[in-house]
Amino acid sequence: MRSLIFLAVTLFPILTIADDRPNVILVMADDMGYGQTGYYNHPILKTPNLDAMAANGIRFDRFYAGAPNCSPTRATVLTGRSNDRTGVHNHGYAINKQEQTISRAFQKAGYSTAHFGKWHLNGLRGPGAPILKHDAHHPGHLGFDYWLSVTNFFDMNPILSRNGDWEEHGGDSSEIVVNEALDYIRGENEKGNSVFIVIWYGTPHSPFMAYESDARPFSNLSPASRDHHAELVAMDRSIGHLRKELRDFGIAENTILWFNSDNGGLGNIKPGTVGDLRGFKNSVYEGGLRVPALIEWPAKIKPQISKYPACTMDIFPTLIDLAGLTKNSINKVTDGISLANVINTNQSRRPSPIGFRHTGRAAWLDNNYKLITLKLGSGEYQLYDLMIDPREQKDVLADQPDIANRMIKSFEAWNASVEESIAGADYRSGKVNPFPRPQQTNLMTLPEYQKHFKRWVKRPEFKPYIERELKRQEQLKTKSE
Residue 13 above 70 pLDDT? Predict the structure, then answer.
């Protein structure tokens, strides 16, 4: 009897600690621009659920994607490191499996981990197709216990891969993945498990497909702009459903819900997607990097608007503190910092700059000043004072030589450290393990997907890609004859 009493006494504190741990849900839009929310006074788009989330949590007005397009930013979320350090230099690059990921950290901490939606970290280009069960870079290999995922963007009535088994789903893609995530959360909640969930939307990435009822308010726009905005309406509705169900489950109070976009908005959509900022997706100017971002945690976060410069590299370090993960969960060479001490304060100055590298271009953000080079190694730079010139119209490099020289020196030191990381210096082996196929492989060239062409060619998300691949094959055949 004494041993049973001792067992009960010793186990009770452990269970209490587990019950107190927050659930964590990371939600990310795909190509949603900084200006595309109601709370930023978009002229025609209403986002009542994101607005409600902003009113109940912390709204970061200076939040930056780790890179100006999709795969690289996803790598920064998972690692807390600049994308080039992780091997993800552009869209369609695979992340180095030697990286320490946030999903593995939560997995080791005893959380149930799951990924829903767009993956795009397995070295493939092309439309979003269901991930192969034998793919060496599927989410399960990077720390997710459960996954319902696609290689890239996905839209209405998608084909998704559930732990490698392919399924056709009906309806809007945002609502599908949220409903699936809620089913998973409900099941794990009933088991008493805390969850770490990643929901990566395919919205509002092209091709644009939406319900007619969602598109009707935008009928005066071009078809692309109309359906782009309609996709955002459905995405916002899914956010509302997610928040409501968390409340109904009784776990909303102790759930950290973090929303942001993966890069700046698109230049061909009207009205504009980035507010008054310069540049769009794939640009290192503000319009390509600055994105909407919100964190809601009713038990701990008071409503506030923050001007603190933050980024997707900060997500992992912040959650180490908020969820009590071990400090060595993350690579010792990291680019993000914890925002735990920023929440519920009026801090606005960041202690260290934020670095961005993407396809030979770079930016170095030190609070109000931003250094840009459009060609790494050229020695040519631009400098902007974002406090007085948020649209980056006046280059003050010549006017502020002391600031310029200081920032160039610190940027070049950081850039040299990234080059060392690319060579593998941050890994135990001192080198990067080779990827088994060429990076950015067109999935339409893989036999595992080609055998589905006859059926998929009727689907709008696949049709143009399949037709191009069939034409390429015909040209090769003709050339060889």
Answer: no
Using the predicted structure, report yes or no on whether residue 3 has a pLDDT greater than 70.
no
Query: Strand, coil or helix: what is 220?
Result: coil
On whether the CB atoms of residues 320 and 338 are closer than 8 A, the answer is: yes
Crossing angle of helices 315-323 and 70-79, rounded to 10°: 30
**What are 328's two structure tokens?**
């060595």
* Rounded Cα gap, residues 200 and 30, in angstroms: 8
- Confidence band for 477, pLDDT divided at 50, 70 and 90: confident
Q: 363-389 pLDDT, tens per residue?
A: 999 999 999 999 999 999 999 999 999
The pLDDT value given to residue 480: 83
23-329 matches 354-422 in fold: no
CATH code for the part of the protein at 354-422: 3.30.1120.10
How far CA 303 is from CA of 40, 51, 246, 295, 346, in Å, comes to 16, 12, 19, 10, 12
Domain boundaries defined on the chain? 23-329, 354-422, 451-480
Tokens describing residue 31: 């190509």
Amino acid at 105: A
- The answer to whether the beta carbons of residues 355 and 362 sit under 8 Å apart is yes
Q: Give the homologous superfamily in CATH for domain 23-329.
A: Alkaline Phosphatase, subunit A (3.40.720.10)
Q: Any idea what the Cα angle at residue 361 is, between residues 224 and 138, rounded to 5°?
A: 65
